[in-house]
Amino acid sequence: MSSTNTAPAWQKEVFDVLRAGDVKQIAYVPDAGHSYAIRAAIDDPTIEDVVLTTEEEGVGVVSGAWLGGQRAVLLMQSSGVGNCVNMFSLLEMCRFPFLTLVTMRGEYAEFNPWQIPMGSATQEALELMGITVFRADQPEEVGEVVSAAFDTAFLAGERVAVLLGQTLIGRKKWERK
Question: Is residue 66 domain-resident?
Answer without folding.
Answer: yes
